[in-house]
Amino acid sequence: MSSSKHLPTRILAAVDGSEESMKAAGYAIELAKTTGGKVVALHVIQLPQYLSESVLSRLKEELTQRGQSALAGVQSSAQKSGVEVDCRVIEKTTSVVSALCDFASKDGAEMIVIGTRGTGGVAKLMLGSVAAGVTRSSTCPVLVVK
Questions:
Q1: Dist. CA 30–CA 59, nearest whole Å
Q2: Among 103, 114, 141, CA closest to 3
Q3: pLDDT classification of 3: cutoffs 50, 70, 90
Q4: CATH code (residue 58)
Q5: Torsion on CA atoms 112, 66, 79, 85, rounded to nearest 10
Q6: Domain range spanning residue 57?
């Protein structure tokens, strides 16, 4: 935000289906409602490069369905609040942090809203590694929701 009076109107909500990410998406929706803005809800599928094509295909299908299910909840909440939302699932072989930050930059996001912890195992013990990485790497403001 270039000035203290500018509120974000294009907000990227990182959604992985965890309780924390759904809460973060709710904050993004409320912020967009306040500013008259739009939310882009993004689910990143990180694909391993070493799997066979058949295994990778099944994995992509399962992970895409999980992402779409999580995004359906965000879509429903946004519609109830009267907020425009664009829900997307992207596949990347890079890190989720890089994928989120690159997407935010290319999409013109003015803020990223992310939960403190995601669906990762060890990351549940501390500030999530993705949230910490996005906070360090993003070129726009980041709101981390607990």
A1: 33
A2: 141
A3: very low
A4: 3.40.50.620
A5: 40
A6: 10-145
Residue 3 lies in a domain: no
- Whether residue 111 is contained in a domain is answered as yes
The predicted model gives 51-58 an average pLDDT of 88
- Alpha-helix residue ranges (DSSP H) falling in 17-95: 19-35, 53-81
pLDDT in tens, 126-135: 457 899 999 9
Say how far apart CA 114 and CA 125 lie, in whole Å. Answer: 17
Task: Specify whether the CB–CB gap between 12 and 42 falls below 8 A.
Answer: yes
In a domain, 22, yes or no: yes
Contacts of 60 (CB under 8 A, 6+ apart): 45, 47, 91
Is the separation of the CB atoms in 81 and 35 below 8 Å? no
What is the pTM for the complete model shown?
A: 0.89
Widest CA span of the chain, in angstroms? Answer: 52
Counted domains in the chain: 1
Assigned domain for 84 exists: yes
Kindly tell me the burial class for residue 85, based on how many C-beta atoms sit within 10 Å of its own C-beta (0-12, 13-18, 19 or more): buried
CB 133 within 8 A of CB 120: no
Q: Coil, strand, or helix at residue 111?
A: strand
